[in-house]
Amino acid sequence: MSQISIIIPVYNSEKYLEKCLESMLNQTFKDIEVICINDGSTDNSLKILEEYKNKDSRIKVINNKNQGPGLSRQCGLNNVDPNSKYLMFCDSDDWYEPDMCENMYNAIEQQNVDIVMCDTNVHIIEDDYNNARLNGCISNRKIKLIGYQHIDETNIYKISSLLFNKILKLDIIKNYNIQFPDAKMHDDSTFIFQYLLLTKTYYGVDKELYNYAYRKNSLVYNAFNNIDKELYYPCLNCIKLLDKFSRNFASLNLDKNYITTRMNNFFNYDYSHLIKKKHKIKLLKKLHYILKSIDYLPKHKEILLLIKKGQIYQAASCLDKKIYLSPIQKIFSIKNSYDKKHKIITILGISVNIKRREN
Known about the structure:
This protein has helices at residues 17-25, 45-55, 69-78, 100-111, 131-141, 170-175, 187-198, 219-222, 227-230, 235-248, 256-273, 277-291, 302-309, 312-324, 327-331, and strands at residues 4-10, 32-39, 59-64, 86-89, 95-96, 115-124, 147-150, 166-169, 201-214, 332-336, 342-347, 350-355. By secondary structure, it is an alpha/beta fold. Strands 1, 2, 3, 4, 5, 6, 7, 8 and 9 form a 9-stranded mixed β-sheet that branches. A 3-stranded antiparallel β-sheet has the order 10-11-12.
C-alpha cells in the first residue's frame, strides 16, 4: 500500500527524465508509488523508464501509443494503487525538492483539508526572450493563498489550475468520478476545476517545493503552431466534460458562475490563438452545438449567450474587439464585421455596429 500515488506523463523527455525520476527516488517520504505513462515517445524515454523500474519497484511503467497528456493522466489515474490515499502529479521535465512529498503529506494530514498547494520555483532552461510569456508563467505558478483557507466564491479563483504543485484526496476523485478530458490542452485545468467545485478547505505551504522547467519547446509553447492546419480545438471536450460533471451532480448546487467562467476562459484562449478567420468561425459553430443545450449560462456571459443563440458573426466581432484592438484602435478604429454587412466604429472604447448600404 502506498500513501501517495504520483502520476507522470512522459513524451520525448530523455534529456530531463532522469533528473525527474531521481527526485522521486530521493524523497524523504518513502511511502509512494510513481506511475509513469510513456505516451508513444520516439526517443529513449521508454528505455530510461524501464531502467528505473528495474532499479526501484515503486516505479511503475505503462507504455501507450501517443494519445496526449489528458488520456495519459487518465490512464495513470486508472492504475493507481486502490489503497492509496493521496494523489500528486509531476511533469517529466520537472522535479520535486527532496522533502516535497513529506511536506505535502504532513500538511494535508495535520490540517485535515481537501487540497494542499505549495509554491513553485521556475527555472529558465531555454529562454525564448518572450518576457510577457515568462512573467505570466511565473505569476501563474506562484502561490497566492498561504495557510488554512475556506474555499469560497472568492478564494476559489485564487487557486491555480495547475496539477503539479498540489496533493489531492483520492477518495474525493473516486467518489465523484473526476476525470480528465481527451484533450491536449486544458486537461489539467478541467480536472482541477471539477475537484475544486467539491472541496471546502485548502492549505497553502509557503515553500518552493516544485521545480518547473521553463522551455521554449514545451507542449504549451508548441500546441498551437499548426492549429490552422490541424483544426485542433482542445476547449470543446473540456467544456463538454465540465457540463457533464455539472449535470451529474446537479443536486449539489455547484457554482454555475465558476463553471461558466472557466468554460469562457477555455474557448477564449483557443480562439485567441487561431489565425485564420474560417477556423475561428468553425470553432464558434462547434461551440454553439454544445452551448445550446446548457440552460444555466448567466446573463453577464454575453459572448457565450451570443454563441448559444447562434449569433456567430456577432460573437466573433465582439471577441476580436476584445482580443485584438491595440491601445490606439481602442481610441478610434473602423473595421468590417465578419459578415461584412456592418462597419464597427470604435471611439474612446465604445463600439457601434453600423449597417452598410446595399449597392
